[in-house]
């Protein structure tokens, strides 16, 4: 549980939350204390129902960047809670649901929405409301200042697929925040915060502002995430990635240039890395020509040249060098 040295009062950094070992009520009490200490200044933990507290099996990681809170949560148990009456609630909140379902709103006012797996919801919260999550729900929650999004959305809600280009960029950036928050200085915290706000606006608009240079790292990370999940796809290329992320190929190349790498170099590096790992498999090892075909190289000669350039050995030499002596 680390905090940034700079801007610590406003940005306590990234940390883990979890239902600690011990009796179930103690698990909740530990979780509640940590939440209130780290995040309570921006968003207080809702008042949870007795059955939720009695069977509290939740793991989460959180980060606070000034007045933005990010929480990744997985609940093995169901959860149900209500906002604390009297609280001032003037925020935009986003639920990005990967598994299970998350329900928010006020059923008495017929203002209730359920977010199923594979969907997100961005909505303004202006009065106390409740939430309910199904067992085994995995979601990313964002709490955002209203001032930045009200001019765009008013009281409207935005829903859509978790695979939408703008949301991919936002999710990639939140993951980067979790990974780097503890090491950021004041300028880094400011940049992380600004990018969070701009990317949330992009989700609200349904488009990415590709002239905003602060968003380049998030675009690069989202593209890399796509590459990693499509490494064996025969059409994996900069144009394909640009289409998936709803940006121009020029914008994508420009973003990668900021990190000193080309899109194709990253694709080739990752394919070679996976091929190298395949060569270490203890059994069922593919031949060089099979590896070349599987990882979408033109032919075995092209694969061998690229592999030797990256690792200093041909695939055959590498496989021989890692083979146990006497085998």
TrEMBL record:
<feature type="domain" description="HTH araC/xylS-type">
    <location>
        <begin position="221"/>
        <end position="321"/>
    </location>
</feature>
<protein>
    <submittedName>
        <fullName>Transcriptional regulator</fullName>
    </submittedName>
</protein>
<keyword id="KW-0238">DNA-binding</keyword>
<dbReference type="InterPro" id="IPR050204">
    <property type="entry name" value="AraC_XylS_family_regulators"/>
</dbReference>
<dbReference type="InterPro" id="IPR020449">
    <property type="entry name" value="Tscrpt_reg_AraC-type_HTH"/>
</dbReference>
<dbReference type="Pfam" id="PF12833">
    <property type="entry name" value="HTH_18"/>
</dbReference>
<dbReference type="InterPro" id="IPR009057">
    <property type="entry name" value="Homeodomain-like_sf"/>
</dbReference>
<keyword id="KW-0804">Transcription</keyword>
<dbReference type="GO" id="GO:0003700">
    <property type="term" value="F:DNA-binding transcription factor activity"/>
</dbReference>
<dbReference type="InterPro" id="IPR018062">
    <property type="entry name" value="HTH_AraC-typ_CS"/>
</dbReference>
<keyword id="KW-0805">Transcription regulation</keyword>
<dbReference type="InterPro" id="IPR018060">
    <property type="entry name" value="HTH_AraC"/>
</dbReference>
<feature type="region of interest" description="Disordered">
    <location>
        <begin position="1"/>
        <end position="20"/>
    </location>
</feature>
<dbReference type="GO" id="GO:0043565">
    <property type="term" value="F:sequence-specific DNA binding"/>
</dbReference>
């Amino acid at each position: 549980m680390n905090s940034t040295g700079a801007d610590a009062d406003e940005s306590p950094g990234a940390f883990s939350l979890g239902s600690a070992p011990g009796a179930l009520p103690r698990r909740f009490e530990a979780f509640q204390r940590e939440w209130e200490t780290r995040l309570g200044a921006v968003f207080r933990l809702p008042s949870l129902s007795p059955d939720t507290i009695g069977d509290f099996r939740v793991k989460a990681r959180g980060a606070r960047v000034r007045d933005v809170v990010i929480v990744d949560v997985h609940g093995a148990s169901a959860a149900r809670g209500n906002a604390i009456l009297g609280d001032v609630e003037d925020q935009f909140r986003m639920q990005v649901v990967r598994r299970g379902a998350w329900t928010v709103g006020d059923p008495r006012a017929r203002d209730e929405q359920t977010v199923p797996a594979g969907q997100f919801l961005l909505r303004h919260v202006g009065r106390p409301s409740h939430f309910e999550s199904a067992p085994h729900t995995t979601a990313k929650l964002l709490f955002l200042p209203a001032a930045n999004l009200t001019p765009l959305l008013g009281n409207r809600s935005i829903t859509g697929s978790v695979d939408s280009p703008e949301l991919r960029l936002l999710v990639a950036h939140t993951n980067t925040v979790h990974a780097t928050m503890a090491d950021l200085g004041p300028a880094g915290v400011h940049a992380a915060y600004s990018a969070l706000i701009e990317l949330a606006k992009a989700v609200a608009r349904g488009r990415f502002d590709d002239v905003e240079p602060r968003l380049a790292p998030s675009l690069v990370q989202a593209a890399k995430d796509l590459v990693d999940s499509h490494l064996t796809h025969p059409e994996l290329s900069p144009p394909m990635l640009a289409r998936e992320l709803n940006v121009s190929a020029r914008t994508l190349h420009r973003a990668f240039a900021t990190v000193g790498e080309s899109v194709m170099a990253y694709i080739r590096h990752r394919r070679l890395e996976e091929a190298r790992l395949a060569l270490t498999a203890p059994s069922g090892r593919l031949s060089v020509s099979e590896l070349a075909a599987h990882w979408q190289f033109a032919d075995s000669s092209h694969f061998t040249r690229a592999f030797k350039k990256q690792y200093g050995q041909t695939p055959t030499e590498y496989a021989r060098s890692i083979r146990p002596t006497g085998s």
